[in-house]
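Supplementary Note 3. Input sequence used for the single-chain structure prediction.
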Amino acid sequence: MRIGLVSPYSWSFQGGVNRHVEALAEEFLRRGHDVRVLAPVDPPGRVSRALHRASAERRELPDYLMPLGRTMGFGANGSVSNLAPFPAGGVVAPRRLVRSGEFDVIHVHEPLVPLVGWNATLGARDPVVGTFHAYSTKGLPNHIANGLGARRVFNRLSARIAVSEAAAWTGRRWYGGEYTIIPNGVDTEAAPSGPKPVGDDLRILFVGRPEERKGLPILLTAFNALVEHVPCRLTVIGSEEEDVLRYVADPDLMRSIDVRGRVSREDLWKELHDADLLCAPSLSGESFGMVLTEAFAAGTPVIASAIAGYSDVVSDGVDGLLVPPGDPQRLAEELQRAHFEPERLQEMGEAARRSAQRYAWPRVADQVAGVYERAIEAPKPVTAAERMAHWTGLRPADGGPKRPAERLPSLDPPPAQAGKRGRAVARRLGLAVAGIMGVGLTLLAAQKIGVDNVVESIVRSNLTWVLIACALMASSLFFRAASWYWIARAALPNRPIRRRDVTSATMIGVLMSATLPARLGEPARALTLARRSGRVRETFPVLLGTLVSQTLLNLVALVLLGVIIVSTTPLFHSGTKQIFAFSLVPLIVLLVLLVAPLLMRRNGNGRLARLGGMVHRALVQVRAGLAVFRDPRRGSAASAAQLGAWAIQLAACWALLYALGLDGKAGIGAAAAVLFAVNVTAVVPATPSNIGVFQLAVISVLHSGFGVSTADALAYGVILQAVEIATAVALGLPALVREGLTWSDLRVQALSTAPVRLDSKPRARASQP
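The predicted structure, written as discrete structure tokens, is reproduced below.
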């Protein structure tokens, strides 16, 4: 039989589909069939690096490969797909080769993928078999594909294969048709068969690209808790060290991690055999998981997420374990149990080797060959009407009845924490609404006052005084960093606290506070400094406590501002009492943090008792951040620097009054009142930089207390906020560059500080139903 295998993915960047195609081709060649593989190829060099942002793998091309042209890397489904977007390789070459190849059957893998899959299917005159590898639940891309004619294209297929129930679900849900489920195969003969090496450490293996969808951040979070109680090592294959570091909040964790990057097939087999277990914590989007069956063939059990594609492969409790996706706590608990249950681990390894026989390539190839024969025997169109219906895709080429797409229940399990996704959506929606309301309040105020008047006031401002205010605002941030340095030194006397690290963390925190709501800059700066100050799990709570110390000093500064306001202005009247009363909120929070550890229970064995103990320990660590007030020298330095920062900010607010020519109506008391108001109303800002509320607070103070026109007051609020944001960006971005961080890095590293806690011994396993 002359077989043409078509892959839309670059042969130079090997993935699961290409490994499947290569193994299937070699199995059929061993059986004496004439096989050709049609796939794009990217020769190593500068062009490939530019098109893919990665170097193409140097590998010898097999004789049966017929290159189609170059590809380009595209982000899709949480990963990078290397597809042929160019007409020569994506349209012309596949159509020409399938027509000139004189094949008995053409086997197109991923016929949905443009452009190669579609054109190989449409250009063929011989029977075409399509294999569907992907699992997709998103409606938009599939509706777009159907709008472009995908269902009619797939009606040109004489037979359809799906590698799993998840892939078949995708086909039935969006495109209709009948699917034969034939799994990906595994080379059981190439797998090592000897005894596993003996060691005290629990050897965990992760194989996958550095994508969040693959669950590497979840595994690292669980592993961070595991190393506290279990001797263990984690080997990461398929990712580089800088990719792993991006998800690691505590650099010390790298001492227990071996990062191998890309490895040869022989080295991969060795690592699979040497590992005690393979961990596959993917979050979604997996239709099968070839690495699971490869681990089975090597006699290695698997701990995998209970997602659609993996649940087809792993028999929970037999050849592996299934855990809820995105649940680092449960993953850490199962890894800990694996260390304390070596006999059970060995039994699952033996069962895994037996399970691998279901996926042996000879068995898989037999099933595929059966589909080929069925496709060849499918009735051919005879009349002109039948040929037209076949060519237009109105008539299924397999000769069977039409099977339209149908709505099917999802195969995905519910989230690890019910309602978590809903809360996240509600939170994003709330933030969006709050942001729109903030901007709307500012625009409404400008409209009421008169946009022309506000713009005129802004244009009339003195640029020199505005620049002076910017310089003063920037200087105040360095004073705040100096204060935090002394506070952190007192709280962590045995840790390597450096001034430049504290300064960078301060600037990053200010940048995030200026561009994100809810004071997210505070934990961000604590996390940034914790990465430079030893073990993050130990230093991060203490550094959060140092922020409480700064809050206490800020309360002192607010009191001093209140003294200035009361002694110089008659501002404290019914219109602004609420702002002054709101200043008590930080004081109340501070008192709760101080008193709560004394009131909480620390004994008991129940779940609530363990949670209470965990919270108590965290609060005690947070309270350790107040140690600066027991050190006269450092306490004095921290207080002087923090209060000095407030004094400089007060000068900046005063300078802006001069910039707008308001110094005749409002003096130092007005500047103090503005600084007081904008800080009190920003205790828990609902919008980035508290936009909207910020301007209204300024108008309330200047117009009500000092008789400044509403237009000038709004202009002052706009310029003051612009000065703060410009200063934050100018100082924060270089700090991000220095730390080698991005917004995404800070977000995923914050996940690593989530409270995953393990007991010294694993708790009893819940009874199985």
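The two ends are 50 Å apart (CA to CA). The CA atoms of residues 281 and 704 lie 58 Å apart.
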